[in-house]
């Protein structure tokens, strides 16, 4: 049966920040994104492109002021999150929407033992009594790969390694069986082996509990392994979006293509990695026309004058670039 509404449906979200010196930083520009239950949708872009502002909006943690939502809606199970009261948002956070951060320290309270933090969340949101909450906390810790003993339950966050803290945070994020999990660069601070373990863990839990995962990353290579769909964001605007297979088989936007060339290829030892010259513009000074034009090797005079519209190519593959379908130039040389 087709659900009445998507798990998460962001429509035309446009957010700016008023800066101290009275200038405006345009952080998100008409962002559209759909995430279905049981699916992983990756939001990928360089640092400063608007990924975390998007996550903050969904979590209802956007500070207004200095932020202003100029336009748009964020529907979660058909409910517009932007119109909820603080109490309603608080009830959703932790219960229906879980979040994992790059730095577990931002989420885990250093003054409380891991067990207390999980148990309190279970008692608050699920109204469990203490002994059931302890039992459930042990099950959760075992689910994320710890032994079913009380050592981790009785540990403070500083007594755990980086990978262990990340697992404990995942246990907390999923303790109330959320329908949506936002993972904001959850593996960036970890070494490659741990990175793989945490990615596999998120993937397994998503399948096991049919959670929708919004996976935020700067690394297309990482999300390739776990995402069903990918949206590429640049200077606060989604510039390409489609299924992971389609994106890797037929990337259309020059920015996406350049991001792909910067993924290390383990099969080609010694091959030169392509880096994208320049940097993401700051949100106060977004270039005119196509915001990527100062860095785009294919830019033409018209690219500076007007913003390329987002068009659909084939099956739900959207991209915003004037040159798509007109000419193809190899960027790898
Ligand atoms: Fe490059 Fe122009 Fe396409 Fe922008 S619209 S990505 S500047 S070719």
The fraction of residues assigned to DSSP E strands is 15-25%
SSE sequence, one letter per element: EEEHEEHEHHHEHEHEEHHEE
- Rg over CA atoms, rounded to whole Å, is 21 Å
| Multimeric state | single chain
Low-confidence spans? none
> Roughly what percent helix?
25-40%
* N-to-C CA distance: 48 Å
Number of helices: 9
Which sequence of strands runs across the widest sheet?
6-7-8-3-9-10-12-11
Structural class: alpha/beta
| Inertia-based shape | globular
Largest sheet: 8 strands, mixed
Bound compounds, each kind once, are: iron/sulfur cluster
The number of strands is 12
Q: Report the average pLDDT across residues.
A: 88
Q: How would you describe the overall organization of this protein?
A:
The chain has 333 residues and is of the alpha/beta class. 27% of the residues lie in helices and 22% in strands. It contains nine helices and twelve strands. The chain has helices at residues 51-58, 86-92, 114-126, 130-143, 162-173, 192-209, 220-224, 244-249, 254-261; strands at 8-18, 24-35, 40-44, 67-76, 79-80, 97-100, 180-184, 212-217, 229-234, 237-243, 311-313, 317-319. The strands form two sheets. The chain has an eight-stranded mixed sheet. Strands 2-1-4-5 form a four-stranded antiparallel sheet, with helices on one face. Helix 4 packs across helix 5. The termini are far apart. The mean pLDDT is 88.
